[in-house]
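Appendix B. Raw example, untouched.
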Amino acid sequence: MKKLNTLAYDFGASSGRGIIGEYDGERLSLREIHRFSNDPVNLAGAFCWDFPGLFNQVKQGLLKTDCEISSIGIDTWGVDYGLLDNAGRLISNPYHYRDLRTDGYPEGAYSTMAKEDIFSRTGLAFLNFNTLYQLLASKKDTPYLLDNASTLLMMPDLFAYFLTGAVSTEYTIASTSQLINIATRSWDMDLIRSFGLPEHIFTSINEPGEFRGRLLPSLASELSVGEIPVISVAGHDTASAIASVPAKKGENFAYISSGTWSLMGTESTTPCLDPTVLANNLTNEGGVFSTYRILKNIMGLWIIQECRRKWNSEGNNFSFADLVDLAEKEKPLVSFINPDAKEFMSPGNMPDKVKEFCRRTGQPVPETIGAVTRCVYESLAMEYRHVLNSLEALPNAPKYDALHIVGGGSQNLFLNRATACAINRKVVCGPVEATAIGNIAMQLAGLGELNGINDIRELVSRSFPTTEYLPTEAERWDEAYEKYLSIRF
C-alpha cells in the first residue's frame, strides 16, 4: 500500500513538537520535524499561555513538511480554554492552569452544589484548576471576558479552529473540564445553569477519530500546502498517550503517563462512581473508543524540573542524567515528601520547599543536590504504590499484572527501578513518544486504516521497543512505605 504520512502536533506544558508518523500498513515510524518551547508569560498579574506564539509554531511546522500530509491531529494538556467573540476572534490569551486565580473556588462551589452531587454528575476529581473553577473565577473577577464570549474552545479545539474555521469540542479534552455529564458524554447543562455560566458558549461534542475540517484556503495558500484534513484525535494528551500503551489484549494493566505530571490509572469500559473514587480524589476522564480513564493526577517530574531550573540558575549546567548520577551516590530511602502537597504546585525555590517539608515532618533534611533529587524520585515511587493500592481497592478491580509507563518519564532508569521496587511487580517502560503515537494512531483510525483499540496497541507493539524492570529488596521497600505513609497524611 501507499505510505501514509500524518502530522501530529503534541503540546506539553513546557514544549511542543510537530511529528510526522510514517505508516506503511504494517509498522509506524516517527520523524520529528519541528520542536519549540512553550513559555507561559505573566501579563498584568495573570499567568497566561502565549497562544499567538504557539499558533505561529504550528505554521512553522507546516512550512517544514517535506512530504504529502494525509491529515493533521492536535493534542494538548487539559482544562485550559480560549474564548472567541461573535466575530470569531480570540478575546484574550488563555489562562494557564497554574495561575492562582482559582484558589479556594472548589470549596466555594459546594455552597451552590454539593461536592457529592458534582462528582456523581461528572465523575471528576476536584482540582483547583478544573475548567469549572476557572470559569467561576472569571465570572467573579473578569466578567467582561464571559460577557463578550460567543464560544468556548478547549486548547486543542482552539488550535483546530484557527486551522479550519470549524467550531466543535473533542470529547476527551472536554472530559477534563468538570462540566461533562459522565452518563451522557455531553455538556451537563443543568450543572452549567446551576453555576450561572453562559450556556451558549459551549459547542457540539465530537469523538476521537472524527473528521473536523480542512485547512483554511487562506492558510493553505500562505503556507504553500494543500487543504489538509484535520482529524479530531484524543485532544487530551493523556488520552492520546494511554491509547498507545502496548498492552496485550485482555491484559489487566495499570499505567502512568509520565512527564511534568504523572497520570496514573487504569482503563475501563465504564466509569466508576464508587465513594472510594471520590475519597481518594481519583477521576473519570474520557478515553478513545468509548473507554474511560480512572486515574489520579500526581505532581510528577514537575518537582525535579523546577529543582533543576533553580540549580542551573545558580550557575550550574545539570542535565537530568547528571542529577540521577548524583542521586545514585546518596543513601537510599532516607526522607520523603508528599509530591501532591500544595506547596509543590506553584513555581519557586523547589529545593528549599523539599527541605522545608522534610524539616517540618521531622525527617533528615536532604542537604546535597543528589539527596534532594533522590528524595523526590523515591517519593514519587512511593506515591505510585499508594495510588496503585487505591485502584486495586475499587469494586471489582483486579490485581494488575503490570504497570506500563509511557511518555518522556519512561526513560528515567532510576525512577523506573525505584517504581518496580516500590510496587513490587513488573514495570514495562515505553514507548517514549506515547502521546504523539496515540495522536497519529487516531488519525489512522479516522482515515480508516485502523479499527479499534486492539488494532492500535498491536501496531504500537510491532513498531516500538519496550524495557522491563523487576522488583528487588521487597522487605526494605515495604518498611520504607510505612514511613512514607506516616508523613503523607
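End of appendix B.
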